[in-house]
Design a protein that fits this description.
The protein has about 90 residues and is of the alpha/beta class. It has a single domain, classed as Dna Topoisomerase Vi A Subunit, Chain: A, domain 2. It is built from 4 helices and 4 strands, in the order βαβαβαβα. The longest helix has 14 residues. The N and C termini lie close together (about 5 Å).
């Protein structure tokens, strides 16, 4: 699954994406996300968001499976990124 910050980013990624609804998330969300074998954290490219993405990845580390943090190069988030880059993300992880 691709974990994004907001619903518009989820729409840009498509099936297999979920939103935390901002940079804050709950331990209940972490527990639910931990049930998936492959978790890709794709938050905005700003430093604060990337720091929160790394923190979420650390909190998901004890769960089985793999967690990866990605930073898109063509836009600040999936909704603003080049659709081809988002498609490559989908091909790699979904």
């Amino acid at each position: 699954m691709v974990i994004c910050e907001g619903p518009v980013d989820v729409w840009a990624v498509g099936p297999g994406a979920v939103a935390t609804f901002g940079l804050q998330y709950t331990m209940e969300q972490v527990a639910l996300l931990g049930k998936y074998a492959v978790r890709v954290v794709c938050f905005d490219s700003e430093p604060e968001a990337q720091g929160r993405a790394r923190q979420l990845a650390r909190e998901l580390a004890p769960f089985r499976g793999e967690t990866v943090v990605v930073r898109l190069e063509s836009g600040k988030d999936p909704a603003a990124a080049d659709p081809e880059e988002v498609e490559r993300l989908r091909e790699l992880f979904l």
